[in-house]
Amino acid sequence: MNHRPPVDAVDRVEPANAGTVHIRPLVAADAVAYKALRDEALRTAPDAFTSDYESSVGRDASEYVARFGALESGQFFLGAFDAAGQLLGCLGCEREQRTKQRHCAVVVGMMVSPAAQRRGIGRMLVEACMQAASQVPGLTQLVLTVTASNHHVVRLYEQAGFRAWGLLPHAIVVDGVGYDKLHMLRLLSH
Ligand SMILES: CC(C)(COP(=O)(O)OP(=O)(O)OC[C@H]1O[C@@H](n2cnc3c(N)ncnc32)[C@H](O)[C@@H]1OP(=O)(O)O)[C@@H](O)C(=O)NCCC(=O)NCCS
């Protein structure tokens, strides 16, 4: 018999330094808050993302809703909300669709509002993502890329069990400066 929690069980968690933070999947009603968080992250941390602020700020929030997906599909976005319901951070999990790659999903768009950073929310989002992804039948590994010079973010992923397997030199260029991207892998336990 399968005693695993249902795939939509993303629990409320309350680390000591983060206050009450509720992690749940993003839904259409969150699109405006998601766009605001994303635009702020792209503007304040341009070297961390492949997307750029200038190309994104003019987009309509509704364009992002299709990305939110559904937990059970392996295509989902998780949001971290404070007690007042304000979106503090998010991350996406995008399952590969082709038959030979459906065991794999890409973690994307990890961001925490600058005012809410260093309170454990990023760590909570990664843990919740791994928990939800490990409930998806057939999904056995997560991959991601991270700007190699952002050592604190690399360390965060390493602490969550991701291991680097390669480096793409000069993967993105921001304001004329090239940045390498580290490729990381985390096997899921089902
Ligand atoms: C990366 C990011 C999401 C982390 O979110 P966060 O909520 O601040 O992370 P946490 O508080 O959970 O930190 C977990 C651990 O990561 C490391 N860490 C996170 N931010 C750090 C910082 N600014 N300096 C040093 N270490 C840091 C630490 O090891 C930390 O543990 P500690 O606080 O016990 O030392 C956030 O800094 C962010 O949005 N950055 C800009 C966008 C970005 O880089 N996204 C990642 C794309 S791959």
TrEMBL record:
Keywords: Acyltransferase, Transferase. GO terms for molecular function: acyltransferase activity, transferring groups other than amino-acyl groups. The keyword Transferase applies. InterPro entries: Acyl_CoA_acyltransferase, Bact_Acetyltransf, GNAT_dom. The keyword Acyltransferase applies. Residues 21-186 form the N-acetyltransferase domain. It comes from the Bacteria. PANTHER family: AMINOALKYLPHOSPHONATE N-ACETYLTRANSFERASE-RELATED (PTHR43877:SF2), AMINOALKYLPHOSPHONATE N-ACETYLTRANSFERASE-RELATED-RELATED (PTHR43877). This is RimJ/RimL family protein N-acetyltransferase.
